Amino acid sequence: MQTTQSIFDRYEEISERLPNVTSRSDTLDIASLLDITNDIDAFVFDAFGVLNVGETMIPGADRRLDQLRERGCAIRILTNAASYDRAGAIDKFKRLGLTVEDDEIITSREAALLHLTAGHWGVISATSDDLSDLPESASRLEDSSDVYDTVDHFLFLSTAEWTPVRQDLLMAAMTTRPRPLLIGNADLAAPRDDGFSIEPGHYGHLIADKFPDHVRFFGKPFPEVYDLIEASLPDVPSARIAMCGDTLHTDILGAAARGWRTVLVTQDGLFAGHETSVFSAKSNLFADWRLERI
């Protein structure tokens, strides 16, 4: 069973694989994002733990986005969820009840797919994912070891149907013939209604422990998703962008490394029920601002 402490400890263990950042030494508490709209032109939101928990929207999230737009702030949602194609991600947020324009959403899946090369891809995904945004030369990885052995590269998008047996098949295939493995969601875990789910980053780092030169991660805190956000905000200086997230080693670290401002959201995500200053001190990762909900 994953806990806040065990997830945090694992992020600390793999911190050498994460971007370098010069940290702040303290965090200022605020009551609402409306308190900092004079300093920020664009707000970028993590989804899980900030806008929603599992399939439930966090109360007031929709109204806050509308209020920020009314003040002239740009809105982006930057999610590490790679289980859906772009259309699926847009549909999910609309089902949650959030009013979001299509161009306001960026996913780690999009970043990963931009880096697919020629060859036959073995894809780890949910069976409900039709893989229509992938190259034709792709096979879903399930329980047949032959497929693992013959593909040229691996792409990890979802843990929905991933099992220890399949992880062993992937590790065995990498041991026999190391190949590129792209992790479409760098998160170790995500907050759900009943605890934390295990995300592709968890399994990816287990492979990277043995084959560090063959595994590449996409999504926060890695740079490719920030490239996509900044390309969509060409007139906004990096220091006028604020990332709002619930996780120090993904949301806060990645944005700070990019020169963005940062907001740690504490009530519903990774650190729900915990005093975050203890974790900031241990990791030396401090957000510019902190609040319970946006």
Unreliable stretches covering 5 or more consecutive residues: none
Distance between the termini: 29 Å
Radius of gyration: 19 Å
Tally of DSSP β-strands: 16
Main β-sheet description: 7 strands, parallel
Globular, elongated, flat, extended or rod-shaped: what is the shape?
Answer: globular
3D architecture notes:
- By secondary structure, the chain is of the alpha/beta class.
- The protein has two domains: 33-110 and 221-291, 3-Layer(aba) Sandwich (Rossmann fold); 118-217, HAD superfamily/HAD-like (Rossmann fold, 3-Layer(aba) Sandwich), CATH 3.40.50.
- It has ten helices and 16 strands.
- It has helices at residues 4-13, 61-70, 86-96, 108-113, 145-150, 164-176, 200-210, 223-232, 248-257, 276-283; strands at 28-29, 42-45, 52-53, 56-57, 74-79, 105-107, 121-124, 138-140, 153-156, 181-183, 189-192, 195-198, 215-217, 241-245, 261-265, 289-291.
- A seven-stranded parallel β-sheet has the order 1-16-15-14-2-5-6.
- It starts with a helix and ends with a strand.
State the main characteristics.
globular, alpha/beta, 10 helices, five-stranded parallel β-sheet, seven-stranded parallel β-sheet, 294 residues, single chain, 16 strands, Rossmann fold
Summary, kept brief:
This protein is of the alpha/beta class and 294 residues long. The protein is globular.
SSE layout:
Layout: H1 4-13, E1 28-29, E2 42-45, E3 52-53, E4 56-57, H2 61-70, E5 74-79, H3 86-96, E6 105-107, H4 108-113, E7 121-124, E8 138-140, H5 145-150, E9 153-156, H6 164-176, E10 181-183, E11 189-192, E12 195-198, H7 200-210, E13 215-217, H8 223-232, E14 241-245, H9 248-257, E15 261-265, H10 276-283, E16 289-291
Parallel strand pairs: 1-16, 2-5, 2-14, 5-6, 7-8, 7-9, 9-10, 10-13, 14-15, 15-16
Antiparallel strand pairs: 3-4, 11-12
